[in-house]
Amino acid sequence: MKYEQLIDLCKRRGFFYPTAELYGGLAGFYDYGPIGVEILNNIKKEWWKSLVHDNTNIEGINGSIITNSKVWDASGHVSEFSDYLVKCCKGHEFKADQVIEEIAKKKTEGLGVKELQKIVDKIMCPKCKSKFGKISKFNLMFSTGLGPENKETVYLRPETAQLIYINFKNVLNTTRQRVPFGIAQIGKAFRNEISPRNALFRMREFLQMEMQYFVDPKEASKTLDRWKKERLNWYINLGINKAHLRLREHKNKELAHYAKKAIDVEYKFEFGWKEIEGIHNRGTYDLSQHEKLSKKDLKYFDEEKNKKYIPAIIETSAGLDRAFLVFLADAYAEEKVKGEKRVVLRIHPKLAAYKVAVFPLVRKDGLDKKAKKIFDTLNNNFNTLYDERGSIGRRYRRQDEIGTPYCITIDYDTKKDNTVTVRDRDSMKQKRVKIDEILDYISKNL
Ligand SMILES: [Zn+2]
Questions:
Q1: Spacing, Cα 91 to ligand 1 middle (Å)
Q2: 381 is in which domain, residue-wise?
Q3: Is CB count within 10 Å lower at the N or C end of the chain?
């Protein structure tokens, strides 16, 4: 299976590792390695540029991970953010809806606890074939104690969105923005998932890229249409095959309590179409809730329209780890070259960890010195890798696997005519280019 081979490549080449492998790991937590963190940072950069830098009316923030617990009271997370857990006689734990969908092959959308229990009573544990007990509800937020003796319960944020809502007035009052405007944020969120799965797909600690756009409620629907198009195009412009993406609107019974309308951006993984981003019309729910609990006025006075109102919120909420997986899954290819398997990651050059790799043919006769000089020039301009060990063929393959768009080889001809070989990742075509022209050549092609 291609997906398994991709995950294998990721581990082999240092894209990410299960956390604390030394001690047996910890389910649902991963560490990004040297190549992974570069790609991750490039995705963040592209997202930030496309929203915060390319739109004069979107500002960025970086909120704290732990905040006043009243925020989570107002948002409904303390009372509502929970999953149904079910245990068999031998203690195997499952998410009730997941085990029902997998074993009983029934849809669980919109079902209450009583209806779920009825189905669970009729199925057996897939691990040991024993019966299930009563369904219980448990909150997905991680909690910890604040202060001496951990007296006060606080939570690790389960989403970044609330940090934006509570800063709505701060940003409004400290910038020149007027409604409509947006606030964007990239950061960690935490959910105590019962069954983390599919490597980076469902994690307990994960990264979100969220943008919340504040509008006159009358313009909410039009604004949602705009953002669903823009967000879909973001993935396509960064190289994702259009045919592997779709927009799916939630049915009424699927809608979360705060949502008026919800559209998922889905990607066609080998294990099915899965949500990678949500675009939601949250109406005025969030700011109204915070106004109610904080007893502070969160209305906006619109001078042009001469009216005061609570803005509606259109949210674009993407999982950064999921985006990372999607960019890799879509770029991964295996092909036969002269009877041998070639693994190549055809990732968009903007996202590639290294833009170019520099190799001296051998480590002597001054070739390495020349190569290092070229490396220094290129590395001043973009992330460049230097490798002088092993056969040139093997060195090319290593770069193909991590998606480096160009490789440059310095050989004996270089000493004669000051040209180098530039090799293209995708076509494997090679070309002689003058040393003075390399920087221009690479920059132009990225
Ligand atoms: Zn069991």
A1: 6
A2: 354-445
A3: N
